[in-house]
Every structure is written in C-alpha cells, then in structure tokens.
Amino acid sequence: MKRSALPKFHLDAEKPSATRRNLSCLFVFLLLKGTIANAAPLVQREVLVDSRASKKIELVWSKPDGTGPWPTLLFVHPHQEWPNKIGAEIFLKNKTIEYWVSKGFVTAAVSQPGYGKSDGPADFCGPESQAAVIESIRFLQKQPSVKRSAVFLYGGSRGATVAGIVAAKEPHMAGVILKSGLYDFVDAYQMYPWYSAIKLSMIWEIGWNQVEALRERSLLSYADHFKVPALIIHGSSDDRASIDYASSFVQKVNAAGGNAEFLSLESEHIIPMEKVKAHMDDFLKKHLSSAGVP
C-alpha cells in the first residue's frame, strides 16, 4: 500500500520575523524605561557625629538625577511615641523625600536625639537637638550636589521649634517652613495642666519648672533677630499648641523687620502633608531666586 507523503514542516516558519523581534525588543525597552522612570530615588544613609557631645546623628537623604548643584530641603520630624520613634524614617515611609526629590530638591531628614538611630536622650528642642540639625546642614553643604546658598529647613510640631531656633542662629539659611509649632514654652508651661502630654514631656526631658531652659527653647525669644524668610503654618483649631502663640511670633518677627508669612488652615494640630505641599511649593519658588536659583 502506497503511503501518503508526510507534510513538510519548515523550521523557519517557527522563527519570529524581524518585525516581531523588533516589536518585542521595543516592548521590553519601554517596559524597562517606565520601571526606571518610576523607581524611587536612591536613598543615602549617614551617621554623623555631634562634635560637641560625640553622639551619633542619623541623616537620610536623596538627590535628583544629574550633577546639580540643587536647592536643598532638610526635614525635622515631630515628636513620636514609642514604639514608633522612627525619626527621619517617617519622611521615607510617607514618601515626602521622594516627592521633593522629584521637584528638583536634594531632600534630607534628620533624627533628633532619642529618635530613630540617633543617640539619646531627647532634650525637648534643646542644644543637642539643635546641634543635630546644624551638623546635618554642615554635612549637606559639603556635598557637590548641594547649592550652599539654597538650603531650606522644614520642621513640624517639636521639629518646628528646633528648625526655627536653628534658622535664627544660622541667618544664611534660604528659608524655613514651620508647621504646628509651639512658640512660647514659658507661657505654655504655666498654662498647661500638669497631666498634659506636652507638659509631662517638658518635665521629663528638661526638669521641673526650669524657666531659663524653657526660655532658651522658646522660639518667641528669638523673634527680634529672626531674619530668615519664614512660612508659619498653623491649624485654626490646634488642640495642642494654640494658634495665638504662632500669631504672636509672626507679628513680633515682622515688627522687628523680619519676613514671616502666616498661613492658618482649617485643621487641628496634625496637618496632613498633602494639605501643605502646594503652599510649601509656592514659598520655595518665591525664595529660590534670592538664593541664586533661576
């Protein structure tokens, strides 16, 4: 019986055409390009040393692509309760650092003493907290990617007091943004009941009725010679730090020839970062040109 011829298979028919290969390569390229474009910026972690007290200071920072030099924004965190005393890490978790890097800023955050990986104890906005911020500024200004004349500070709540005092002592800063700060520790200590969380922290970290130490930590004490451009953001219904203290500080700064803008938002003490980003952006743009950034 005659067998029918088997069909001929051409192996070449199984090979993708040049067009298909090119399309596949293009797809892979676009996929990789999109992945790279959406990748979070590289975060660098530093352990600085407070030259005055020989204590470790945690600093995290990141920069835009390219060589720069770039304007810089250093964040100082608010008080955090155990077990969430993660310090600077909060600005990585909530993507604040990633956001401002995407806006063209070298962006950094420092852990105050007693928070994150910085050595303690906490000193309630005192000399060691201020030194941690100053050491961080010094480190950043040495980086080739940082434009030295365009370093801005941001502080929230407890961090607002620390950032504000540093700005008063370091008048070369390009600007400072303070959110939900407490500006008069002396008066607050007298007015708050003993069981309030803020007063208990004052007593624990500073001592009982240490009026001079409270005055040295009160930003209101520095208002007469506060010359750094400032944006003061405060919640109209702040339940921890009265808006009256913030208003008094702004009035005193401007009466002494300073440049402080006051922004009251409908909020309690904790104002979400999303609610202030646009206001921060406007303030930074306004003062970048005076800092030598076109």
Q: Evaluate the radius of gyration.
A: 26 Å
Oligomeric grouping of the chains: single chain
Strand content: 15-25%
What's the order of the H and E elements? HEEEHHEHEHEHHHEHEH
CATH class: Alpha Beta
- Nearest-integer average pLDDT: 89
Q: Topology, pairings included?
A:
Blueprint: H1 18-38, E1 44-50, E2 55-62, E3 70-76, H2 90-93, H3 96-102, E4 106-110, H4 127-141, E5 146-156, H5 158-169, E6 175-179, H6 185-191, H7 197-205, H8 211-216, E7 230-235, H9 243-255, E8 260-265, H10 273-288
Parallel strand pairs: 3-4, 3-5, 5-6, 6-7, 7-8
Antiparallel strand pairs: 1-2, 2-4
Helix pairs in contact: 4-5
Concise summary:
With 294 residues, the protein is α/β, with parallel strands linked by helices. It is built from ten helices and eight strands.
How is this structure best described in words?
- The structure is a single chain.
- This protein is of the alpha/beta class and 294 residues long.
- The protein has one domain: Rossmann fold.
- Helix content is 37%, strand content 19%.
- It has helices spanning 18-38, 90-93, 96-102, 127-141, 158-169, 185-191, 197-205, 211-216, 243-255, 273-288; strands at 44-50, 55-62, 70-76, 106-110, 146-156, 175-179, 230-235, 260-265.
- α4 (127-141) crosses α5.
- The longest helix is centred in the first third of the chain and has 21 residues, at 18-38.
- The chain is globular, with a radius of gyration of 26 Å.
- The termini are far apart.
- Mean pLDDT is 89; it is low at 1-16 and 23-37.
